[in-house]
Design brief:
With 335 residues, the protein is an alpha/beta fold. It has 8 helices and 20 strands. It has a 5-stranded parallel sheet, with helices on one face. Helix 5 runs parallel beside helix 6. The structure holds iron/sulfur cluster.
Length: 335
């Protein structure tokens, strides 16, 4: 039986490892952080069915309980190259591992909101990212900069996506529905708090997303404003003032809020960029490139090298799981 190295123990990498291990293939699974599924573990609930993220993490961790899987955590893979018929991958400490196949499942990195200086992140209190909001929801601690219950929360879409200035022209796909989900969770925890979502256009592409959007308005009273916030700044009393244009009304707008939540997009991680470049599979914006988006989306131009999950493009968790499974099938077919 041939062997495989999978780089990245996120939803895509774990699903692929589980499928291949069940078929008897020895799997070395490498994770740069101290435990798998870091990006999910900090979330509260997952769209569209509000499944508890902790339950999904537990179920996915159980998939790793297979004697054919060896998990190497705290192991950052920095290099990979073909040597004869095998692949050699090397970690940051100089340890080398050999296998017949490599699957890149290195995931994404969130957009760094500091790069949008005009939005005041890291400068003024009361401005948080969607990841920080997720933690506040998870631990039932949604508070403003003074540690008090917020009277108003504003969500801003498309931070670091669809944005010429940050160099990312693409849509990050999951942040629209994440804002709707977070606004609903906010209203469930704090029904008296006002919730506003500023959007360019809402992309409710998945099953049940449209229903969530409707429910957020009809049941929870979430308000939607079409327009982009151009500037955010702090006020003397610890609040945040935003300047925007309501593009439906054609009017400039100012608003104060207790919390401004920046819905940050997804970017290729440094690890993805570096590994993809070294193997000649670097695509647009630093993401890894597959052979064909229709019929070869887990294949690459390099023999024995496969790709899956959000290292290719922004992807939801359920899509990443399915893509990991698709990659496993592609690998088995190449035997
Ligand atoms: S999913 Fe929505 S918020 Fe995210 S980049 Fe696309 S349009 Fe903007």
């Amino acid at each position: 039986m041939k062997s495989i190295s999978i780089i990245g123990a996120g939803p895509a990498g774990i699903e692929a490892a589980s499928v291949l291990a069940k078929q008897g293939m020895p799997v070395n699974l490498f994770e740069k952080s101290s435990s798998p599924l870091k990006n999910i573990a900090d979330k509260a609930f997952l769209f569209p069915n509000f499944a508890a993220a902790s339950d999904i993490v537990d179920l996915m961790n159980k998939k790793l309980l297979n004697q054919n899987i060896t998990l190497h955590h705290d192991t950052d893979i920095v290099k990979m190259q073909r040597e004869g018929e095998a692949w050699k991958i090397v970690d940051g400490k100089g340890n080398a591992y050999y296998s017949d196949y490599v699957l890149m499942a290195t995931g994404y990195t969130p957009f760094d909101a500091h790069r949008k200086e005009e939005l005041g992140y890291g400068i003024y209190n009361g401005i948080v990212t969607s990841l920080e909001m997720e933690k506040m929801i998870r631990y039932n601690q949604i508070v403003n900069s003074l540690g008090e219950k917020p009277k108003r929360v504003v969500f801003l879409q498309c931070v670091g996506s669809r944005d010429e200035k940050s160099g990312n022209h693409y849509c990050s796909k999951v942040c629209c529905v994440t804002a709707v989900k977070q606004a609903i969770e906010l209203k469930r925890q704090l029904p008296d708090t006002e919730a506003y979502i500023f959007y360019m256009d809402l992309r409710m592409w998945g099953q049940h997303f449209e229903e969530m959007y409707r429910e957020s308005q009809q049941k929870y009273g979430v308000r939607y404003v079409r327009g982009r916030i151009s500037e955010a700044s702090g006020t003397f009393d610890g609040r945040v003032q935003v300047k925007a244009e309501d593009t439906l009304m054609g009017l400039p707008l100012k608003m104060t809020t207790d919390l401004l939540v920046l819905m940050v997009g997804m970017e290729a991680s440094e690890g993805t960029k570096c590994l993809a470049k070294s193997c000649g599979i670097c695509g647009e914006y630093g993401f890894a490139k597959s052979v064909d988006p229709h019929l070869g989306d887990c294949l690459t131009e390099q023999k024995g090298l496969f790709v899956c999950g959000a290292c290719k493009r922004p992807m939801s968790i359920n899509d990443a799981v399915n893509d990991g499974r698709a990659a496993a099938v592609a690998i088995m077919e190449s035997e």
